[in-house]
Design a protein that fits this description.
The complex is a heterodimer of chains A (112) and B (449). Chain A is mostly helical and 112 residues long. In chain A, 46% of the residues lie in helices and 0% in strands. The chains are: A mainly alpha (112), B mainly beta (449). Chains A and B meet through helix 2 and helix 3 of A and strand 5, strand 7, helix 1 and helix 2 of B. Chain B: Keywords: Repeat, WD repeat.
């Protein structure tokens, strides 16, 4: 009986090794899960797709901004953190915080 | 019409022809080319960039003095198509990046094209002016009004030749019809309508009407929590004006017939390749997402591009593709890092040659690949300034997957993933290709004997 158990254990280990050897994709998946243990089970599911649909979303709210301005007439408005790429959270965004979107006034270099 | 057209891969030698764009190492974001498209005759080549600009090149007439400079492409017109916008109501930033350009077939002296960003499609008219009226009575040549009391003689204005001027004017603006981001536009073979597709909906437009469009596909679930797939690309059939296809992020293609219903939510055909469930991994769905779908010129086949392969499907067979070509399968063992640096979400396009015998798509390290459907041979070429001597023949490149690397091979770990070729175009009837390498446009032609 002892012999049977050890044989089963070896076969299971062998199967796992085979899986890793046969599929580079599964090996990569194992690597990813090791780095990010909380990664969701369904990557193609709604979280991932909804992030795609939200592209371009900024968090400037003119109502919040104006109310904050009115309340804090005599105080300094909280300024943004040095990293201005993501404007969300407790900080009240100001128009200055939003990245300036100017149209290209320069001609394309392909036409040069 | 070249003898080499439609010939076997081994007979086609690709040569460098031209390169457009800045040489310096730093790339300005707005200069990144986002779309490339030949018009129906191949006389014009249009590019769109992240800065919302369109540049149109025109092929030179062939000169007897320089027969081997077979029609170079030079700048014909350039204009600002789209500008950045901010939707204050939705707190949404709208990029000016040109996602797609599609030409209309030429019906008169002017050229027409559609260009689109994430939200708005525009119809542009590009026309030439080589005469101007001179000799007005009420204004002088500078346009200043003349004092009518000083005019004693009447004359008839005449048209005089002037230096050629190419003007681009926006003729129609098709706005406010897309909640989500437009990924495709396609001109219908009836030349009266076109479609625009975003992540969840496809709309049908008439060129003459800008304040209405028909919604023909809507896959938005009632509850967004149930969202499982999005539309990634769409195209009209080249000859049948009632037929179109759209691809999804789950690797499927649906063919729809507009004659069956006003809302084409139910497909006429559903193309999906069965997957071995034991092979399924975290990455399976992401790499199966179709980034481009193109009908063959014949209308008999569709080609799809997903992250690692290009597939050809016969419209009459829905259960699997008839051909599958590996673009860069060696990336399968790099998927973890490609997920971390977002490269796994790169959207590569694919194109047919004029005779549907060869297909082409881009890869990393400024490599692009061609597959000959008849001989089953493939080649990897590179768009680089190092191979940019006039008429220099491009040497095939090879990626070394493991083991001993030969002298001129490149190992997978040395590939530059920031140099991606997402957009390419093939002349409709000749072996001339345009390849967008970040901010540079390369034009290659086959060797003229």
């Amino acid at each position: 009986i002892l012999l049977d158990v050890s044989l089963t254990v070896s076969l299971t280990v062998f199967q796992e090794m085979e899986d890793k050897v046969l599929s580079p994709e599964k090996a990569e998946e194992a690597k990813l899960k090791a780095r990010y243990p909380h990664l969701g089970q369904k990557p193609g599911g709604s979280d991932f797709l909804r992030k795609r649909l939200q592209k371009g979303q900024k968090y400037f709210d003119s109502g919040d901004y104006n109310m904050a301005k009115a309340k804090m007439k005599n105080k300094q408005l909280p300024t943004a953190a040095p990293d201005k790429t993501e404007v969300t959270g407790d900080h009240i965004p100001t128009p200055q915080d939003l990245p300036q979107r100017k149209p290209s006034l320069v001609a394309s270099k392909l036409a040069g | 019409f070249l003898a080499g057209f439609g010939s076997l891969m081994q007979d086609v030698l690709w040569c460098f022809s031209q390169v457009k764009g800045a040489i310096d190492a730093g790339v300005t974001e707005s200069d990144i080319i986002s779309t490339v498209e030949f018009n129906h005759t191949g006389e014009l080549l249009a590019t769109g960039d992240k800065g919302g600009r369109v540049v149109i090149f025109q092929r030179e007439q062939e000169s007897k003095n320089q027969p081997h400079r077979r029609g170079e492409y030079n700048v014909y017109s350039t204009f600002q198509s789209h500008e950045p916008e901010f939707d204050y109501l939705k707190s949404l930033e709208i990029e000016e990046k040109i996602n797609k350009i599609r030409w209309l077939p030429q019906q008169n002296a002017a050229y027409f094209l559609l260009s689109t960003n994430d939200k708005t499609v525009k119809l542009w008219k590009v026309s030439e002016r080589d005469k101007r009226p001179e000799g007005y009575n009420l204004k002088d040549e500078d346009g200043r009004l003349r004092d009518p009391s000083m005019i004693t003689v009447l004359r008839v204005p005449v048209l005089r030749p002037m230096d050629l001027m190419v003007e681009a004017t926006p003729r129609r603006v098709f706005a406010n019809a897309h909640t989500y981001h437009i990924n495709s536009i396609s001109v219908n073979s009836d030349y009266e309508t076109y479609m625009s597709a975003d992540d969840l909906r496809i709309n049908l437009w008439n060129f003459e009407i800008t304040n209405q469009s028909f919604n023909i596909v809507d896959i938005k679930p009632a509850n967004m929590e149930e969202l499982t797939e999005v539309i990634t690309a769409a195209e009209f059939h080249p000859h049948h004006c009632n037929t179109f296809v759209y691809s999804s992020s789950k690797g499927t293609i649906r063919l729809c017939d507009m004659r069956t219903a006003a809302l084409c939510d139910r497909h006429a055909k559903f193309f999906e390749e069965p997957e071995d469930p034991s092979n399924r991994s975290f990455f399976s769905e992401i790499i199966s997402s179709i980034s481009d779908v193109k009908f063959s010129h014949s209308g008999r086949y569709i080609m799809t591009r997903d992250y690692l392969t290009v597939k050809v499907w016969d419209l009459n067979m829905e259960n699997r593709p008839i051909e599958t070509y590996q673009v860069h399968d060696y990336l399968r063992s790099k998927l973890c890092s490609l997920y971390e640096n977002d490269c796994i979400f790169d959207k590569f396009e694919c194109v047919w040659n004029g005779s549907d015998s060869v297909i082409m798509t881009g890869s990393y390290n400024n490599f692009f690949r061609m597959f000959d459907r008849n001989t089953k041979r493939d080649v990897t070429l590179e768009a680089s300034r190092e191979n940019s001597k006039p008429r220099a023949i491009l040497k095939p490149r090879k990626v070394c997957v493991g083991g001993k690397r030969r002298k001129d091979e490149i190992s997978v770990d040395s590939l530059d993933f920031s140099k991606k070729i997402l957009h390419t175009a093939w002349h409709p009837s000749e072996n001339i290709i345009a390849v967008a390498a970040t901010n540079n446009l390369y034009i290659f032609q086959d060797k003229v004997n």
